[in-house]
Prior knowledge:
Layout: E1 4-13, E2 16-22, E3 32-36, H1 43-50, E4 57-62, E5 65-66, H2 72-78, E6 79-82, H3 94-104, H4 111-124, H5 140-152, E7 158-162, H6 170-187, E8 190-194, H7 198-204, E9 207-212, E10 215-221, H8 222-225, H9 228-235, E11 237-243, E12 249-256
Parallel strand pairs: 3-8, 3-9, 6-7, 7-8
Antiparallel strand pairs: 1-2, 1-4, 4-5, 9-10, 11-12
Helix pairs in contact: 3-4
Amino acid sequence: MSGLQVSDIQVFYGRTQRLFGASLPDLQPGDVLGLLGANAAGKSTLMRTLAGQQPYQGRIRFYGQDQRQRSQREWLALVGFMPQTPPQESALRPYELLWSAARALGMALSDSALTARIESLLQRLGLAEYALAPLYSLSGGKRQLVGLALALIREPQLLLLDEPTSALDLHWRMIVLDLVQEKVQAEGAIAVASIHDLDLAARYCNKLVMLEQGRVVAAGPVRDVLTPANIARVFKVEAQVVPGALGYPQVQVVRPIRHPV
Length: 261
């Protein structure tokens, strides 16, 4: 039985259709799926739909049970969602935010176990020295890392990450994606992440989906999706895809396509 099945998703904002029959490859425990596409391709809309925040037509099944058959509380207990916007600037401190979120979710952890989990996450994400700093004093990148900690605190079965590294430099992008990959594999979870960097997507994801204007252009294993033809269509650049030093495909952009069809 597949862990996550998503098929024929259609989403409307009023009378405007944003997703047109979008389907994902079936995902199993340990899978990391990367969503690729230009701005306004529908990645965030699909993420919010999977998170249970957006009405839709189509089917989302998690281990054989339809999403609509679960209450919102049941779905939230399974899903860790990191939206594109980081936690707002406020007087709250990362430690306080994580503690209150865990208790609001009803996580069955003793105070000492929860403290250990929070401290471990903050340490892994380079936030230990900022644990008691007000969020308004943190940079956008640091607040984005706090947002990831919020998604990971419950050790979810389905991890949804909307542009989790957009405000980070390359070092911290790799730290974050290393941690996500490690957590998914160790806990038998499934992750879906929208990622702008094609090389990082090829390195950390084992399946990809390319979206264009709310439609799926390509879906499947990395090497089948990350092709010059698909990149040209979706990103409007001429590119070569070559073997990387570690065995992952790498994208070498040659030039923009000045008059895309």
